[in-house]
Amino acid sequence: MVSGGARGLGAAHVELFGEEGASVFFGDVLTDEGSALEAELRQRGLDVHFLRLDVTRPDDWSAALDRVLSVRGTLTTLVNNAAIFSPEGTEALSQRRWRQVMGVNLEGQWLGMRTVLPTLVASGNASIINICSVYAQIGSPDAIAYHASKGGVRIMTKSTALEYAGRGVRVNSVNPGVIDTLFAGPATPETESAEIGLVPLGRKAQPREVAHASLFLASDDASYVTGAEIVVDGGWTAH
Ligand SMILES: NC(=O)c1ccc[n+]([C@@H]2O[C@H](COP(=O)([O-])OP(=O)(O)OC[C@H]3O[C@@H](n4cnc5c(N)ncnc54)[C@H](O)[C@@H]3O)[C@@H](O)[C@H]2O)c1
Question: Lower CB density within 10 Å: C or N end of the chain?
Answer without folding.
Answer: C
